[in-house]
Amino acid sequence: MASWTNKKNSPVEAERHFHHSNSRELFHQRIPTLKAGDAKQKMREIRDYVLNTMELYGKVFESVAAEEGFFVHPVHKLRHPLIFYYGHTACFYINKLRAAGLSEPINPRFEEIFAVGVDEMSWDDLNEEHYNWPTVGEVTEYRLAVRDHVDEMLSSGRYKLNLPLTFENSTLNMDNSFWWVMLMCSEHERIHVETASVHVRELPMRFINSAMSCFWKRCEEVNSKAPVNELIEVFGDKVHVGRQPDSSVYGWDCDYSDGNYVIDVPAFKASKYLVSNAEFMSFMKADGYNTQRYWDEEGWKWVLWRKPQHPWFWVRDESRPDGYALRLQAELIDLPWNWPCELNNLEAHAFCRFKSEEWGKNIRMLTEAEWLLLWDRYVGKDQMDWDKAPGNLNLEHFQSSCPVNKFKQGPFYDIVGNAWQHCETKVYPYPGYKVHPFYDDFSMPTFDGRHACMKGGAWVSSGNEATRDARFAFRRHFFQYIGLRYVEGGPTNEERYCGSVLGMDPEVDIMTDAGFRESVDGIPNGCVKIAEYCMAQFKAHARVEPKRALDFACGAGRVSFELSALFSQVVGSDFTARYLIPAYAMLERGKCTYSTLESSSLQRVAKMAEASNYSWDSNRKRVTFFQSDPTNLHSHMKDFSLIVCWNALERSSAPAAIPLHMLSRLEEGGLLVIECQYEWVEGGPSARENPGETSLPHKGFAEEEIYNLLGAESAVE
């Protein structure tokens, strides 16, 4: 791995590892602008940005001193060991290039095990029995191989950069697709610079390389006293919400609005500072962690589960002057009382209830729109136009938090930077929201009313994260570098925005309606017919017991649930997590909601399917769901008695590989059922729609040709 000198890598190491011939800053980067300029210079800028991001991410893991540290399970058990995240971002490059039809696999095994498991979603497979992790050395070599592959593509001149490059034209042709994927992957890796550094921070100190404290250079300004917080009045105004469709920088799907989205923000009062460690101590002295009235229902359940007595990154240490230390990336320091207190959303909400009781006022967290108003009024200049970051942001000032009264913006401090700020608002789709075809499940699964927004960025936030319109959200019990700016204001109704999800994903709505409606125009449910046919064929032809079934391209899960009548274990799987949302809702909560378009009124109408109305309700816990690639299934997805693969070949960019791969996961004597329209081509749907752009125009494969792909009579009956 590369070495470092202060904040710059040595030229020798930079050239050897990242093909740069001169020393350059790992910090202080600017997100590339994409509106105009010299295309060749911009291509070099993007290349430097991508390689810089890869190198910075590698630095996060240099803080781990022993290989064992990569395989230690997080104490909260909510995520994979670090080894997963070490390989994940490199794997992401290859999988997104493949999704765009631009690359072949480099290491199919790694591109399967490192593919999914970022947010704490139900389809993230955290069962460690399903993984045989490679060594750190093997993953390092894989990362270097991916780096070389990506750099060759960036430097080859094969892909022309057409400016402006926007979300809307990012799939117009292979050139645009390539450059958008490069930006997507580098911004994804920058997100993980932040989240993986939290994982390192959670490791026991015995696994930490303390020498890395010279790289993660912390702020030396610590004080046993913190400024006394106060509320400052903010007059109301309208704010434009969302990234503009013609934005000059990369954005995630949830960033964008239609360009005309405006919210009228009433007047409010906001705290001058982020809540400091000292201010939060008043909550602890009031026995806040053991006082139920400060917590909402979800928060109190978390308290009973985790039994917290202090914030997550505080360490009780009686040898310290005030009895506490603060865990940083590579060291423990005396708790700095004037730094922001890092909390999860549940703790932030409880603190606001405590403060409301103490002051006799309605104290709450910011809304997303209130934060935007503060930014517009007192910051006003985005990353692309900075001379220097206006706050402790983008790794430009420190590689840690700093005092809450150091970076002033208007009458406030830390509107941007130092620590993210919790919001009352749950993340929701803005008007004009569209999924991106190369990452169609980035945001949609989080529009569930359970992922709370955070705004402003932290010291480590960079790239897209450090822009006005960045939108990120976590489950309320998650810990990141997030603090609290509280507000005195009227009651909010932020839940109203969650209703905007209705009809937001018509494809999933249609799939769900088709799955759970008993008939359409008098025609019996097709999913039920498929399941009945497969079970009948299994009983007639299989030479094994009905133990384990796979339903690929399961969508909303109806076939999977129907198969549970015969099979003791059923695995439903699909290409994208978007399709699994209703399946998991049905599995976990016994019901799922969706919408249909009424033909008479052309209005979206909410619908609900309930498991109690179906014969398989008592069996539904036999079913599990995983996101997976039908040409590279998770390694634990094997030894199936029955495999049902339907509507998958037409949706895959490599359909010819699916039949034989499915056959390899079938136990001897089992039954494989493949259903398709015989309209698939190599390259996937885009190649079928634009036949002139594919070099492999396989058309209309007949049943006999699928039989041959399976190995004909030597492999199947």
Automatic annotation (TrEMBL):
Give start and end of each DinB-like domain: 60-195
Is Magnesium a UniProt keyword of this protein? Answer: no
Listed InterPro entries: CTDL_fold, DinB-like, OvoA_Cterm, OvoA_Nterm, SAM-dependent_MTases_sf, Sulfatase_Mod_Factor_Kinase, SUMF_dom, SUMF_sf
Q: Which domain of life is it from?
A: Eukaryota
Per the record, the pathway is: Amino-acid biosynthesis; ergothioneine biosynthesis
Q: Which GO terms describe its molecular function?
A: formylglycine-generating oxidase activity
Alphabetical list of SUPFAM superfamilies matching this protein:
C-type lectin-like, S-adenosyl-L-methionine-dependent methyltransferases
Q: Where is the Sulfatase-modifying factor enzyme-like domain?
A: 260-487
Q: Please give the PANTHER family that the UniProt record associates with this protein.
A: GENERIC METHYLTRANSFERASE, SULFATASE MODIFYING FACTOR 1, 2
Protein's UniProt name:
5-histidylcysteine sulfoxide synthase
Q: What is the lineage of its organism?
A: Eukaryota, Discoba, Euglenozoa, Kinetoplastea, Metakinetoplastina
